[in-house]
Write a structure and sequence with these properties.
The complex is a heterodimer of chains A (392) and B (280).
Chain A: E1 17-22, H1 23-34, E2 38-41, H2 48-60, E3 64-67, H3 71-83, E4 88-92, H4 94-109, E5 114-122, E6 128-132, H5 137-142, E7 151-153, H6 158-175, E8 178-184, H7 185-189, E9 191-196, E10 241-243, H8 258-273, H9 276-279, E11 282-285, E12 292-296, H10 299-313, E13 318-323, E14 325-327, H11 331-340, E15 343-348, H12 354-362, E16 367-371, H13 380-390
Parallel strand pairs in A: 2-3, 2-4, 4-5, 5-8, 7-8, 12-13, 12-15, 15-16
Antiparallel strand pairs in A: 1-9, 5-6, 7-14, 11-13
Chain B: H1 2-6, H2 29-42, E1 50-54, E2 69-72, H3 78-88, E3 93-99, H4 100-106, H5 108-117, E4 122-127, E5 130-131, E6 137-138, H6 162-169, E7 173-178, H7 182-194, E8 199-204, H8 208-214, H9 220-230, E9 231-233, E10 249-256, H10 262-274
Parallel strand pairs in B: 1-2, 1-3, 3-4, 4-8, 7-8, 9-10
Antiparallel strand pairs in B: 5-6, 7-10
Helix pairs in contact in B: 2-7, 4-5, 5-6
Classes of the chains: A alpha/beta (392), B alpha/beta (280).
Chain lengths: 392, 280
């Protein structure tokens, strides 16, 4: 007997349209829209839903989902997949992020395009797995040993979980650098409306390929003028070598050369520092005539916007500088606002991390820090009161 | 023309601009590199489709010498890195060549899980019983009652029996040889390279400079003599009985079974996922 079955239409790669979803799922969909076809991860609250969604989505679009034995392995597998030519991502939270630091350093050193999502929860250690936090922003910047620069983006809505994940891949591919999406538990678990554009209208950047054919003199780490080397991948005949050791442009170890160490490490930093104006993004709200500014990111920026609106109603000239890019830090943008206002307020769900950068960039302007730990994010009233206090 | 004649038949497998290598005189790693090159040669492998991945340690430098795509990872992570490479590009033959400390101490977790998944990679372990690169400390394969720089009163820890571990974790091909049995070793590397699934070749390798010196075998010759006297060829014997002692090194093939690899199962799953039927 033949059973009639209807084959469903081919699974869509980009699920365009107006949709209702959680931040974690939007992040997974954003990665797929950006071209991610490899996900290696390990279950961890509150990022697990990203892995779950990838385990369902990737196989149907010819991608690979693998649950590794730990986060160390996940990060290593992501680097391996990227070197085999496939866009790759992992997603985790604080404890897993700590384990990934070793191979994040390897990704920096071997200039591996890859995306690491950290849906931040409360730490230190196991901390509060189901509660929000913004406690890993300094770890994202400095967590692995040695000197380096990375890129980190902070979404504050479900829409941005989609959009910034696409951007993260584009940055990773452009600069050959591990790029972080630093979300938090609220943004990850919150459900909101998301507009997913048509595939054609999503800007996708792919890594530069070597312009030369395989040849014995090929130098896989020879940079272009933008300080980023075109990337050869395994299986194309280049027979190139990559190592976590300090290396020259051929990729060969140079463990005793001062010149090689200086040249490589400075380039790894400079390829981000010198392209900062192309990377850094902030969002300004009502800052034109502001006397007091809130500088915020992630979930705290949502309450900050409400606070600024309330302040305006109450006659307080307030504005918001929302940091979309956390690393490299928007010094100039923060400095410019600082010169125009009498005071700045920085709400963060930690004991004071980005506020240190704000203080550094704002020089003489007073900076008020509002700390929040645990379940509740900042209330707009608290931020409003802090702003009003600075003008008394 | 003269230059052509002077070329070693395995030159094409080496990055000649990286030679001389960093290994000590009498080290077994050269023999391992030679056997690996010979295996690639005899199989007539397409070098464009071979990736060599290594970790940290003396043998970890091997990826810098093979004329293939290659990656020298962080300590203990070559198998995890190789997992990404193999799954992202299944066309590649991925060989992980690393040391006992790298693969079984810091990287032990990755080994057991890659074997459990039957990931289609080839793991070749140079077991010299110590951490050579850092100067000769004891590790998870150091036999009981032997001396190293950190076991000055004799080692009191039990050593891993690697072939037993590999077979218990699900490897489809498992063999052990010393650097003395180069023909058999090359044959095993060839089998591993051709086999679908997680294949493991343990190579007992001499480190006369440190392990040898601390254990009254201070030349390569003395260590080779030990390998010769202690080696017992027992093909397909019980790997559980193959524990290495100063007087007995059981060598041979231990496991050669068929089992679908992770990559094959993944491919089947994808087919199912892409052809989802309505009404499910």
């Amino acid at each position: 007997m033949t059973v009639a079955t209807t084959v469903a239409e081919k699974p869509k790669i980009v699920r365009s349209g107006r949709r209702f979803m959680s931040g974690d799922i939007a992040c997974a969909e954003g990665s797929i829209a950006a071209g991610c076809r490899f996900f290696a991860g390990y279950p961890i609250t509150p990022a697990t839903e990203i892995a779950e969604h990838m385990s369902r989505r990737l196989p149907e679009i010819d991608g690979v989902y693998i649950q590794m034995e730990d986060e160390i392995a996940s990060m290593a597998a992501v680097i391996g997949a990227s070197y085999a030519g496939v866009k790759a991502m992992t997603a985790t939270s604080g404890p897993g992020f700590s384990l990934m630091q070793e191979n994040i350093g390897l990704a920096v050193m071997t200039e591996t395009p890859c995306v690491i999502v950290n849906v931040m929860r409360g730490g230190p250690s196991t901390g509060q797995p189901t509660m929000p936090g913004q406690q890993d922003v300094m770890q994202a910047r400095w967590g692995s040993h040695g000197d380096y620069e990375i890129i980190a983006l902070a979404p504050s809505s479900v829409q941005e979980m989609f959009d910034l994940t696409v951007d993260a891949f584009n940055f990773a591919e452009t600069y050959r650098v591990p790029t972080f999406v630093l979300a938090d538990e609220i943004v990850g678990h919150m459900w909101e409306r998301v507009n997913i554009p048509e595939a054609e209208s999503i800007r996708i950047v792919n890594r530069k390929k070597p312009r030369e054919s395989p040849n014995p003199k090929f130098a896989p780490f020879k940079p272009d003028a933008d300080l980023v080397p075109p990337m050869a991948v395994f299986g194309q005949g280049y027979h190139f070598h990559a190592t976590g050791l300090t290396h020259d442009e051929r990729g060969y170890p140079r463990t005793e050369s001062v010149e090689a160490q200086t040249r490589l490490v400075q380039r790894l930093c400079n390829k981000i520092r010198k392209n900062k104006d192309k990377i850094v993004r902030v969002q300004e709200d009502m800052l034109e005539d502001a006397e007091v500014a809130v500088v915020a990111y992630g979930i705290a920026a949502r309450a900050a916007l409400s606070a600024v609106r309330k302040a305006r109603v109450e006659g307080v000239k307030a504005g918001l500088l929302r940091l979309v890019t956390l690393w490299p830090f928007p010094d100039e943008q923060v400095g410019q606002v600082a010169r125009r206002v009498k005071a700045m307020v920085v709400p963060e769900m930690n004991c004071g991390q980005i506020v240190r950068e704000v203080e550094r960039a704002s020089k003489e302007t007073p900076v008020i820090f509002l700390s929040k730990l645990g379940e509740e994010p900042h209330k707009p009233e608290e931020i409003f009161e802090a702003m009003r206090g600075t003008l008394k | 023309m003269i230059e052509e004649e002077l070329r070693h038949p395995y030159d094409k497998f080496l990055r000649k601009d990286r030679i001389p290598h960093i290994w000590c005189e009498g080290c077994g790693n050269g023999i391992i590199l030679n056997c690996f090159a010979r295996a690639l040669d005899e199989l007539n492998m397409d070098l464009d489709k071979v990736a060599v991945v290594s970790g940290i340690g003396c043998i970890g430098r091997i990826s810098g010498y093979t004329n293939t795509d290659s990656f020298h990872t962080t300590h203990g992570r070559p198998i995890a890195f190789a997992t990404g490479v193999k799954l992202a590009n299944p066309e590649l033959t991925v060989a992980v060549i690393s040391g006992d400390g790298d693969l079984f101490a810091i990287g032990g977790n990755h080994f057991i899980h890659a074997a459990r998944r039957n990931l289609d990679i080839k793991v070749i372990c140079a077991n010299n019983f110590i951490y050579g690169m850092t100067g000769g400390q004891g590790g998870p394969t150091t036999p009981m009652d032997t001396w190293t720089t950190t076991t000055p009163y004799g080692n009191i820890e039990q050593a891993f029996n690697l072939v037993h571990l590999a077979s218990a974790c699900g490897a489809v091909y498992v063999a052990r040889w010393t650097t003395l049995q180069t023909r058999w070793l090359t044959e095993s590397i060839k089998k591993a390279l051709q086999k679908e699934g997680f294949s493991f070749v343990e190579i007992i390798s001499e480190c006369p400079e440190i392990f040898g010196r601390y254990n009254k075998m201070d030349t390569a010759l003395k260590m080779m003599k030990w390998f010769k006297e202690a080696s017992v060829v027992q093909n397909f014997s019980d790997p559980a009985e193959a524990k290495i002692t100063p007087s007995r090194i059981v060598v041979g093939e231990f496991v050669d079974i068929e089992k679908p690899s992770y990559g094959r199962l993944l491919k089947e799953m994808r087919t199912k996922a892409t052809q989802r039927k309505t009404g499910e």
